Batch of 3 targets.
Target 1
Amino acid sequence: MMKIDQLSLARQLDLVFKELDHELSGLDSGVVFVQIRNNVIGKFGIRHNPITGRDGQMDLDEKGLNETQRTSFRAMALETLKFKRNWTHGEISYDFTVRQGMILVDATMESNYNMASLMIRYPRINTYKDSDMESTS
């Protein structure tokens, strides 16, 4: 059996979109997010509010992304991975909406770093040489 960390990030993202395909078919806007740790997608999902209120009634909007729009969305999401540089932990959010029959996607990449892991790579020297303060390392 193959482990998830043996799959490329692009293949993992492709699997995410296949898993979310049915849900996306019922939405015409929202945010798809993927949380990444060590270049492995953990948590993923969609933030949306598909219930629309009009004239005192709450109705579920029946329209959503068609198959062509979902395929285009997946292709654009995979294309954004080319802009990911040198980070292994973070989140990518894809804000999507349909306007005039076309899907529009804005991607936001958030890299996360951990100071504790940096301390392993950098030598512990006194960073306060010009003052009376001493390093706590």
Target 2
Amino acid sequence: MNDTPALPDGYLLSTDRDRVDAARVHHWLSTDAYWALGRPREKQDLAIESSLNFGVYEEGSGQQVAYARVVTDFAVFAWLGDVYVDRSVRGKGIGGALVAAVREHLRPYGPRRVLLATQDAHEVYEKAGFTPLAHPERWMALLFQLED
């Protein structure tokens, strides 16, 4: 796709895992993201360590304002998850630009598919080229019960 939206002026994207503000990301996800409410910090840290991370940062302050991570083999498959934009900067196009940047970062690896799940942000992902599964009846999931 050639319609990759750019980040707004004053923001930059990085895939440097060491730059991720793990405490901030954990706070966002464990308190404000329906899919990760209550996620323990140790689990989040392991997820960051084991993933390809994307952060969006304010240029002046360096403060992280958005996050996404990808689980991938860098060959045929990728899963996009934990996409989050801080409430204070929503509506500026950061989410769409972040998802498009993930798409373009993965493109050279040639994965057959990039999957994600969303409850409420379909329009953000559709703009980046995501579509509903063509044959959802072919897909299955193994769900583990979390221990209390």
Target 3
Amino acid sequence: MVSMIQNVAVDCADAYGLARFWSAVTGRPVDPEAGPDSRETQVRLAEGPALYFNQVPEPKTVKNRIHLCLRPETSRDREVDRLLALGAAFVADHRNPDGSGWVVLADPEGNEFCVLRSESDRAATNS
């Protein structure tokens, strides 16, 4: 027997607000039963587990031990610009001169995530 991952849970101060951010990132809707006063909600992804947001009283205090890695449909650099415009914060740049690498951003509550190269970026550099 095995277990399937049902969701990826994110503790946060504003479940609905953070779900709205990730809804914009992924292009998937926030649970229609949720609203600004919801203490928990989710964003169901097209494939894979849901992103589940659970309101907790304590703030984030240290670096994430687990994080999401995004592979955009557009170029990595265009996606980084789009996510920054949505409210993400720049954390670290791990891009290399040959085009490889990734960028680390943080969502509005400080949860870090990576933006990888798109498939077209990878094909252009053959790696």
